[in-house]
Design brief:
about 525 residues, alpha+beta
């Protein structure tokens, strides 16, 4: 990169590619672009790199990946295409045939590129596609993730990587990083660490605490950005004009942390505190893009996931709702969906149900078998802090009748539902919603259905369940090469987008675990390999 002033009021930086956002997809784009010989600047508004990926399981749904062979699984292009078409359905503005085809063609290339870049990936055993009944569905192999890594490889960057367990203040977080164990605490953190390490090692310039406040446009399209960069050890900032000769890639996430935008676009009720993304994605970069004429789509949708709220924080409850001795009911005490369904489907069910019955919040009710055997949000199995009960984050009662009264649930409805559910559990088959029969449910063992178990052992416990999310699905419309389009469908030269900044190709569903991250990686890879020529 070259710095100059030219007598202007702000510094000017010239580079080839500006990547807005230091999440995993942004870092992947930066590494790939650097290896193609481009100068790259990554700007990240927060103080930490890694994005939502570093807080997640880091799974990638990559059909046709070469690692499937190690599990004895094969995946043809025809099978993957048939499955994706069956799941996604009719084409939409954000999900045209060309974009789907580009994803299917590029996903295996991304898998090979990651392993050729020495990232330690493996195909995850026993993780099926979300829609096992669809043609081309696979029982395992399409999901890959990272092995744990030693975070010390990051050197000076170690304290700048976001992790899955963040302390509320920087001093406490840095102290936690001094624990003897330096291994990554999650596969998402491992993936983020690997990409951050390679970005730094390959000469990518990374600015943290650097917020994009303007997209610069001219006769040739988007020509760069203005970055408001924090001055080290100070509350002051300095604006820098960054000229991007090859383009600007928006990898800045969605708008899940922006309450006003949530209320404008998402189904109601909605609350930013329900988001489990763990990132302050405020949609500000999306607003800059739309001001330049970028089209948007999917703004009313998100990567839904049921959550509970504890200490004002959202916590996913995937395993807790899928495991035996528990069920979810609405205010009338009725079950209304398969509790073991994939998160994006289960979260949407709360909104669908609330059209006719009060279902936000709903209630996850478990017996003491469940509470002793399973973690629940932030609480380990068998451990429920007294404060959580006092604040009402979790409710405990000696009988289901008392529990219903405490929560304001219809008592007759709840008792009738539990009797019916317990009968299903005894027979090993859920006749209402087929819980445990779908391929995304826990694997069967010697028992007929390991997802079902009676609610019988007191005391009984309950948490309120909200339609949380892992990020919004709406964003700018992009083409098959990740180029941003305007309202007439024309390319905005020099502007690209991926991940949460772009309208999701996946529509209102998800083909498998890790589909959002995989799509972000593919979109980032395509953007970099299809960059416009330098002027």
């Amino acid at each position: 990169m070259r710095w100059r002033t030219d007598g202007l009021s702000m510094d000017i930086v010239v580079t080839d590619l500006v990547v807005v956002g230091a999440g995993a997809s942004g870092l992947l784009a930066a590494v790939a672009a650097r290896r193609l010989g481009h100068e790259v600047l990554v700007v990240e508004a927060s103080e930490l790199a890694g994005g939502t990926t570093a807080l997640s399981d880091g799974r990638l749904w990559l059909p046709g990946n070469h690692l499937m062979a190690k599990l004895g699984t094969k995946d043809s292009a025809e099978e993957a295409a048939a499955y994706l078409e069956a799941v996604l359905g009719a084409e939409t503005t954000a999900s045209p045939a060309e974009r789907r085809a580009a994803f299917l063609e590029t996903a295996p290339k991304v898998g090979r590129w990651l392993t050729s870049s020495k990232l330690s990936l493996f195909a995850t055993k026993g993780v099926p596609d979300h829609h096992g009944e669809a043609p081309g569905a696979k029982q395992q192999g399409r999901v890959v993730q990272s092995h744990p890594v030693d975070l010390r490889m990051l050197g000076d960057w170690e304290d700048s990587l976001r992790g899955p367990v963040e302390a509320p203040d920087l001093a406490a977080r840095l102290a936690a990083r001094l624990l003897p164990r330096h291994g990554s605490r999650g596969t998402g953190e491992a993936l983020g660490a690997e990409l951050l390490h390679r970005a730094a090692a390959n000469g990518v310039e990374i600015w943290l605490r650097a917020r994009v406040v303007e997209l610069l446009s001219g006769t040739g399209g988007v020509e760069g950005v203005v970055v408001r960069r924090a001055i080290e050890d100070s509350e002051a900032t300095n604006d820098v004009r960054v000229v991007a000769r090859r383009g600007v890639l928006l990898a800045s996430g969605g708008f899940e942390a922006n309450q006003a935008m949530r209320e404008e676009y998402l189904p109601l009720p909605t609350d930013a505190s329900w988001s489990a993304s763990g990132i302050v994605n405020d949609g500000s970069v999306l607003a800059l893009a739309t001001a330049l004429g970028a089209a948007t789509a999917g703004m009313d949708d998100a990567w839904w996931v049921p959550v509970l709220i504890a200490d004002s924080q959202a916590h996913r409850i995937d395993r807790a709702r899928s495991n035996p001795h528990g069920l979810i009911v609405d205010q009338a005490g009725d079950r209304f969906f398969n509790e073991a369904a994939p998160g994006v489907i289960a979260g949407r069910q709360l909104y669908e149900r609330s059209r006719g019955v009060r279902a936000i919040p709903s209630y996850l009710i478990v017996d003491n078998h469940h509470r002793q055997q399973n973690s629940l949000g932030p609480w380990p199995a068998g451990t429920t802090p007294k404060r959580a009960i006092e604040t009402g984050d979790i409710v405990k009662a000696s009988t289901l009748n008392d529990l219903a009264q405490e929560l304001g649930i219809d008592r007759a409805g709840l008792l009738g539902t539990v009797v019916r559910f317990n009968n299903f559990a005894s027979k090993g088959r859920d006749l209402d919603f087929r819980r445990g029969e779908a391929t995304s449910a826990p694997k069967q063992s010697g028992r007929r259905n390991v997802s079902l178990g009676k609610l019988a052992k007191p005391p009984f416990w309950a948490v309120r369940v909200y339609p949380g999310d892992e990020g919004t699905k709406g964003g700018v419309v992009i083409d098959a090469n990740s180029r941003v389009l305007d309202g007439q469908g024309a390319v905005i030269p020099g502007l690209y987008a991926c991940g949460g900044a772009a309208a999701s190709m996946m529509g209102r569903t998800s083909p498998g675990p890790g589909a959002a991250l995989a799509a972000a990686f593919v979109e980032a890879f395509l953007a970099v390999t299809k960059l416009d020529p330098a002027p």
